[in-house]
Amino acid sequence: MAFLVATVVLVGLLAAVNLVFTLAVVRRLREHTELISKMGTAGPMRGATMLPAGQSVGAYTATTVDGATLSADDRDGPELVGFFSLGCQPCAERLPEFVASAADHPGGRHRVLAVVAGRDDEGDAQTFVDDLAPVARVVREDMGGPLQKAFAVQGYPAIGVVDESGVVVVSGTTMPDLAPANA
Predict the structure, then answer these.
(1) Tens of pLDDT along 79-128?
(2) Is 92 inside a domain boundary?
(3) Alpha-carbon gap, residue 67 to 112, rounded angstroms
(4) What is the rounded distance in angstroms from the CA atom of residue 117 to the CA atom of residue 151?
(5) Which of 20, 87, 139, 160 is spaced 20 to 30 Å from 124 by Cα?
(6) Are residues 105 and 148 located together in one domain of the fold?
(7) Looking at residue 161, which CATH number applies to its domain?
């Protein structure tokens, strides 16, 4: 009988300890959820996929898939820029909208820059390049390449308009995010 009482007490104590740990985990998850929800609104770069409006693009040099060399000093007017990652479903979904907008961008292909980021084993880079090449100067680079660093790209897709002096006019993840600059 004493053995049965000891076993019941031990199981009860283990259940109480488990309950305390479970409540601690729930409290910690609530704290993390609150911190994550605040990330989108705190600080100038939080929630941004690239440099926000008013920030200057850094220096860069890159080569397009056509073999042309680009640099930050080559701008002669407002430039539409788009960054797309291989294997990124939102990138694939928003690509046709970017291509359509790029086709109508003032200055034509010369003032549209598209970057396809990632390793070839991550997705079909050629499909992205084939869709973008008629309307944009296309650059292929690995993740963290010079253009991505210059534009402080932190997520994909990243789309923006840069003025002739290299200052971001507007940025976002969809073409409607750029509406004030295209109006």
Answers:
(1) 999 999 998 899 999 999 999 999 999 989 999 999 999 887 766 888 99
(2) yes
(3) 16
(4) 13
(5) 160
(6) yes
(7) 3.40.30.10
